[in-house]
Design brief:
mainly alpha; MESH1; HD domain-containing protein
């Protein structure tokens, strides 16, 4: 990788860390939120062999517009149109009710670009792993199971894009469903 591309990825990491600095995950430990986008990059790069700088930057930035005061214009200015567009593809419209947003993810997943599908797939794998390791404190087993089933509905719409990451999703999904069935 060129040093310029590595520099842009580090710039995206720094940007995401600053934007998410006061946020925590919903697990019992209230983990720093930045661990989540970093886990996407780790999955994409080290498990999936995805090294496309735009995909990696979008993975780092995927929740900035949805969860912070970041704008799409700001992302375009800092990281270019391609990264901004990838983030836009995976960003929920927070003005919609939660159930409608979740339904839209299922309906729109098949229409994402191949690069956006990689970010979305890594996001779902990361979220399922987090629920298995340390679920949100206030989530019942039923709510966890519902999330797993919904995540699979989203991923099933994107199949055929990256067999290796899809296999990882399937393994994590089966592990989680099995553990939830044992409770």
């Amino acid at each position: 990788m060129e040093s310029q591309q590595a520099g842009l990825i580090l710039q995206a990491l720094d940007f995401a860390a600053r934007k998410h600095r006061d946020q925590r995950r919903k697990d019992l430990e209230a983990s720093p939120y930045i661990n989540h986008p970093i886990s996407l990059v780790n999955l994409l790069w080290n498990t999936g062999g995805v090294t496309d700088p735009a995909v990696i930057m979008a993975a780092l930035l995927h929740d900035t517009v949805e969860d912070t005061a970041t704008t799409f214009a700001e992302l375009a200015q800092e990281f270019g149109e391609e990264v901004q567009q990838l983030v836009k593809e995976v960003t929920d419209d927070k003005s919609l009710p939660k159930q409608e947003r979740k339904q839209q993810q299922v309906e729109h997943a098949a229409h994402l670009s191949d690069k956006a599908k990689l970010v979305k797939l890594a996001d779902k794998i990361s979220n399922l792993r987090d629920i298995i390791a340390s679920p949100p404190a206030d989530w019942s087993c039923d709510r966890q199971r519902e999330y797993f089933v919904w995540a699979k509905q989203v991923v099933d719409q994107m199949r055929g894009n990256h067999a290796q990451l899809e296999a990882v999703f399937d393994q994590v999904y089966q592990q989680g469903i099995s553990q939830l069935s044992d409770r």
